[in-house]
From TrEMBL:
It comes from the Bacteria. Pfam families: MFS_1. SUPFAM superfamilies: MFS general substrate transporter (SSF103473). The chain crosses the membrane at residues 12-29, 76-95, 101-123, 135-156, 162-184, 209-235, 241-263, 275-295, 301-326, 347-380. This is MFS transporter. InterPro entries: MFS, MFS_dom, MFS_trans_sf, MFS_Transporters, Tet-R_TetA/multi-R_MdtG-like.
């Protein structure tokens, strides 16, 4: 899956690309409340602005994943980063806050290109036996973007408005694009045999694809539920804004820090795919149970830490299994399609919990989230299923 061993510094721009998409998405999303107050828009409009970035990714990631396999990952990565910078610059040049949704869609479309391209390069540049470690680092940098986005984005909006935020995002994307152009090697597309829609359906319904994708979806669902609803639970328990923010930061930091450890452990065969997935899903389920059943800040803190650690363990395991089991010439298609599963988990998890909370209470919603994590654990690691999917140690 790789032509030669690449030194660690050649992966750093790929981690930077992961940081760009995470930082860009959350720095804007976390400050849409301020935008809504300034522009006097409805909650429905805020909801649409939140969704448009993810919607662009869901629709376009499989398309760009297939393009990665056709033309090679590096051109798609560069094009996506430059497109992200152009979408950001266009918003600044227009000077019209009402165009925020258009700019955010453009950024999402660009991220749909460079995200599967970056993950494909991580997989192709690393020899078998090291995928989990590399994806752990890639996920950690995305986690750093999720953690810093709300904080730095808020500071930029406070200092210079949304123009300052979008200008900074454009510069960041250009810097990473130049870094990619300077450091990341060109990798030619691999020869592919002719494929039909039936072949594609067969590839995307194999257990080796479905199980890691479901686990990745559970990971993003757990994170998005925690980030979205734990501050509400904290406020209802009488906590102040500082503690609410600390909960989100603790969850994100635990997810970011646990990913490299989990990746290294899988590559060193200290854990198996099945044991790691079971441990991660159990941590997520336990975290939601504690948060839902034990009212008060202490239960929420324990729950946030458990969910962050669990989601962080799941992410590199899922990507490593996909990288090891996918046909090398179809890596872009595989990563792009799996990313759709992650986005659906990111959106579907909060919708499910929100619907349950509207019908009952948010505590019950957390219990339902715990049951969902347990169900994924049964489906992906339960008795009677096939053995461990191939990990990055598989050839």
């Amino acid at each position: 899956m790789t032509e030669l061993e690449h030194p660690p510094h050649r992966y750093w721009p790929l981690y930077g690309a992961g940081f760009v998409t995470a930082f860009g998405a959350h720095s804007i999303a976390a400050n849409l409340g301020t935008y809504g107050q300034q522009q006097h828009v409805s909650l429905l409009t805020i909801g649409l602005l939140l969704a448009v970035y993810d919607a662009a990714e869901v629709v376009l990631k499989p398309v760009f994943g297939t393009l990665v396999d056709r033309v090679g990952p590096r051109p798609v990565l560069l094009g996506g980063l430059i497109g992200f910078a152009c979408a950001s610059a266009a918003f600044v040049a227009a000077g019209d806050p009402g165009l925020l949704g258009v700019a955010r869609f453009g950024q999402g479309a660009a991220a749909a290109a460079f995200s599967p391209a970056a993950s494909t390069l991580v997989a192709r540049m690393q020899s078998p036996g090291g995928h989990a470690r590399r994806f752990g680092s890639y996920g950690a940098w995305k986690g750093l973007g999720y953690t810093l986005g709300p904080l730095l984005g808020g500071a930029l909006v406070t200092i210079g408005g949304y123009g300052a935020l979008f200008a900074s995002l454009g510069v960041l994307a250009l810097v990473v694009a130049a870094w990619v152009g300077w450091v990341v090697p060109r990798m030619e597309p691999l020869p592919r045999r002719r494929s039909t829609v039936v072949d594609l359906a067969r590839r995307l319904t194999r257990r080796a694809f479905v199980v890691p994708t479901v686990i990745l979806a559970a990971s993003t669902a757990a994170l998005s539920i925690g980030v979205g609803f734990f501050p509400i639970l904290a406020a209802s328990a009488g906590a102040n804004a500082l503690l609410s923010g600390a909960l989100v930061s603790a969850l994100s930091a635990c997810a970011a820090l646990s990913q490299p450890w989990a990746g290294r452990a899988l590559d060193a065969r200290r854990i198996t795919y099945r044991a790691g997935a079971l441990a991660g899903l159990t941590l997520c389920a336990s975290g939601f149970l504690v948060a839902g059943l034990l009212a008060g800040p202490a239960g929420l803190i324990v729950g946030a830490i458990a969910i962050g650690l669990g989601a962080g363990v799941l992410t590199p395991l899922g990507f490593a299994a996909l990288a090891a089991s996918a046909p090398p010439e179809r890596l872009g298609e595989t990563m792009g399609s799996a990313e759709v599963g992650r986005e659906l988990g990111d959106a579907g998890g909060p919708i499910l919990v929100g619907a349950v909370a509207a019908a009952a209470t948010l505590g019950v919603g957390c219990v339902v989230a715990a049951a969902l994590m347990a169900a994924v654990a049964v489906v992906s690691t339960g008795a009677g299923q096939a053995g461990d999917p191939p990990t990055s140690g598989a050839s």
